[in-house]
Design a protein that fits this description.
Elements: H1 3-15, E1 19-25, E2 28-33, H2 38-47, E3 55-63, E4 77-85, E5 90-97, E6 105-107, H3 117-127, E7 130-132, E8 161-166, E9 171-176
């Protein structure tokens, strides 16, 4: 039995019915849980000596809008935590789907792994996912007055506002985007005989 199979066996035994799915793909495991079990399962994954995931090395939000070419019929937003057990030399992906597509919210994991504080702020800023219990949930990458969440799949590519310095007002101002959306297709123009080497005379 290899390490991934042993980890899968322990997860099935320890997590039990709280696991909505346990997916194995490319030699990696993804454990899916319900929002109501998210925090409790995370604490168990950290504290159970049979599992011992003492580190959360990354946490990110995912937008499944139009996933699979529009064939996706599940919830739109998910949160994925990437866990590491140094003691067991295991990695695990822990995923939860938010109950609401209009107001995506899950419990913060900051009490389980304090390192997720900035990751949760990033997922909030870029995707609009709220983390209940986070002590300082505010934008981290976009500007204070930014409107919307730029990593959502339906966010316009050019954005919604632009900023510029106004010399008359002597300050930076925000205004609606003034450029027209367009498809950018590279156009290559080469001279005749390009890449054929020097011409023979």
């Amino acid at each position: 039995m290899n390490d991934v199979e042993e980890l899968a066996r322990r997860l099935e035994a320890r997590i039990g019915a709280r696991a909505q799915a346990l997916e194995k793909d490319r030699g990696e495991l993804t454990l899916c849980v319900a929002p109501g079990d998210w925090l409790a399962v995370a604490a168990q994954l950290r504290d159970d000596p049979q599992l011992h995931f003492e580190q959360c090395v990354d946490l990110c939000g995912v937008d499944y809008l139009e996933y699979g070419g529009g064939t996706w019929s599940g919830r739109r937003f998910a949160v994925v935590a990437h866990l590491l057990s140094v003691a067991q030399n295991w990695r695990l992906r822990l995923r939860v789907f938010c109950d609401s597509d209009e107001l995506p919210i899950v419990a913060s994991l900051i009490e389980v792994w304090p390192s997720v504080g900035w990751y949760e702020r990033e997922a909030f800023d870029l995707l609009g996912i709220l983390f209940e219990g986070h002590p300082d949930l505010r934008r981290i990458l976009t500007d204070y007055g930014f409107v919307g969440h730029p990593f959502r799949r339906n966010f316009p590519i050019s954005g919604t506002v632009e900023m510029r310095y106004d010399p008359e007002q002597r300050r930076v101002i925000y205004q609606p985007v003034s450029i027209e959306p367009r498809e950018i297709v590279p156009r290559v123009i080469r001279e005749e005989g390009y890449a054929r080497g020097p011409t023979q005379r």
